[in-house]
Amino acid sequence: MLRKVTGVRYQRERIDTPDGDFLDLDWATGKSNRLVIVTHGLEGSSQRHYVKGLIKALYAVGWDGLAWNCRSCSGEINRLPRFYHHGDTSDLELVVQHAIAKGYKHILLAGFSLGGSITLKYLGERGLNVAPQIKKGLAVSVPCDLASCSKELSKPQKIFYTNKFLRRLEKKIKLKSQLMPEKICYADFKKVRVFKDFDNLFTAPLHGFRDADDYYASVSSKNFLDGIRIPTLLISALNDPFLTDECFPKQQAAQNPYLHLELTTQGGHVGFQMLGTNETYVERRAVAWVKDIG
Length: 294
Description:
Number of helices: 9
Helix content: 25-40%
CATH topology of the largest domain: Rossmann fold
């Protein structure tokens, strides 16, 4: 909540999506053919400290950075009723192909929390067919099992976190209901107390799922880990207040040589602060993780 990352200068680019919407991409470029593509977490953006911190750390060792904003997260509400969600890999594919078209030869695909879910699912879905320019993956603080995380964040001692996210989501639902009242009813938000309520009322119907349970079962990234076929580092903290034991895929990592699971005792949720420096443990690991690329 308090960390500030300075020295990252973005250039924004807007691209159109095939369904008539748009994505805002923020670039930090030099003259590299290596690029890190970063996907932010729930209700985050390219401006979040963990996004800027990773881009800054890798830029210092010769990597360009691309922080893309999920629909409605760039500061401008998107045009369609749909938002984004943990399994929404089609927009990431559009961003990846856009980057490849610019000539990048070596890509690190990185994501935090929800962005980590999208990243892991993307890599697992594609398996051996992942674009050859994507050399490695990095995912941090990922809720690999959405159903158990939803229950965890419904506990009274965790409601602080839930309310923080829901307040942000409520503002967007209200705005969208004003723009497209025939599709979204703001009054329904009065029924929302926990994440499952929101997912039942909004996420599921807006994105083609039967209900929240169907959404959780369909897109949880743990279902796709076995398909990953490029070196992918998953870092999570055992004291993460969002995650459950089901989010630490020890057995899948033991059976898949491409999936490297690193569990730290401390770090919280996308925190990983270290004493005496503004740089995080994740950023240092990322620099080491890409040393053999390009």
